[in-house]
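Per reviewer request, we include the raw input and output of the structure prediction for the construct analysed in the revised manuscript.
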Amino acid sequence: MSPTPDWWRSLPTWAQATILSLLLPGVVAHELTHVVCATSWANTALDWDSIAFEAEWTSSHPAPRAAAHIAPLVAGYAAGVGVFAVVIGRPQFSIHAGLLAYLSVNWLAYTIASVSDVAVCLQYLLAWRRGDDLPTA
């Protein structure tokens, strides 16, 4: 059985290609940020079928897990603030509207935390507050 959802397979090829060309760079960068942040505390991989990061945790502490799950949100907002500061600080700086729209869509795809990212992050933060250790595997 394919992990690809039925709704995706039911879309016409042109719609799939359009969605992938618009969102894939931001989504892949989002998942790679999870991987990079978790690498110090886990054996990580990127599942290309579902475009999701996987981690086999070597640390039992919940704080690194919370950080790894919320990392794209923090990094995305930091990058957004930096770009905004550059644009405001240099009014002569202009970008073609199409390129700006494409970059904005991918920045949003990168930055927006999924419900599961936030839920898992909160779960780990609560475990950290209680002083719990988590299984490493």
